[in-house]
Amino acid sequence: MGLPISVDLRDGDAALAERAFAWLREADAQFSPFKPDSEVSRLDRGELSREELTPDLVEVLSLCDWYEQSTGGAFTARVPGRGLDPCAVVKGWAVQRAADILRQGGATTFCVNAGGDVVTAGEPEAGKPWRVGVRHPDLADQVSVVLGVRDGAVATSALYERGQHILDGRTGLPVTGLLSVTVFSDDLAIADTTATAAFTLGKDGIEWAASQEDCEVFIVDEDRRVYSSPGLPVHIC
Length: 237
Prior knowledge:
Layout lengths: L4 E5 L4 H18 L7 H6 L10 H16 L16 H18 L5 E5 L2 E5 L8 E6 L7 E7 L2 E7 L19 E8 L2 H13 L3 H7 L5 E6 L4 E3 L9
Antiparallel strand pairs: 1-2, 2-3, 3-6, 4-5, 6-7, 7-8, 8-9
Helix pairs in contact: 1-4, 4-5, 5-6
Organism: Lentzea alba
EC number: 2.7.1.180
InterPro entries: ApbE, ApbE-like_sf
């Protein structure tokens, strides 16, 4: 997937963790637009019809369509001048599925970290949540906020790691207006896609993200103003 993924598993074994990683490798092979033999690449070249797609790809494309419609086209899996690229949905969706594999295998306490987007379960210490730091958009060695998460997911879309890589699907141009969008939800597919979709809307994404069901937000705009929803699980040290 082009990013580091780690599992902190407190009550499982290496075999269970390997099952989760095996799924992530499978997802990468199936959904990567950069691999010519992936299902996504074959669909993009017209080698597959909608009726021939696997249920997983149908689900991913349905999520892409929903967010595209919800944002008026700002979020899209088909940016002008590019081929089909559902990665903005696939990452959170696939990592959430990996966390589900851990749960189904009996694990109750873990943290899956995919390049800073995380899914957590249980408490690493009695009475204490997992602490998830949200990086400061300007200062790499500092955090803007720390969230306390027991059973939930946190995802951030920002420019500090990859520069202007998020495009407005309506124009194909880099998005302006926001520096960082963090979303807390029960599900990483929702958190990650909502964060990216909100970013594509620029400042209009602040209100849009806050209005989404099962989402709490922490957003920094280009003027360094902070917007935080009241249900955000801020950890008080």
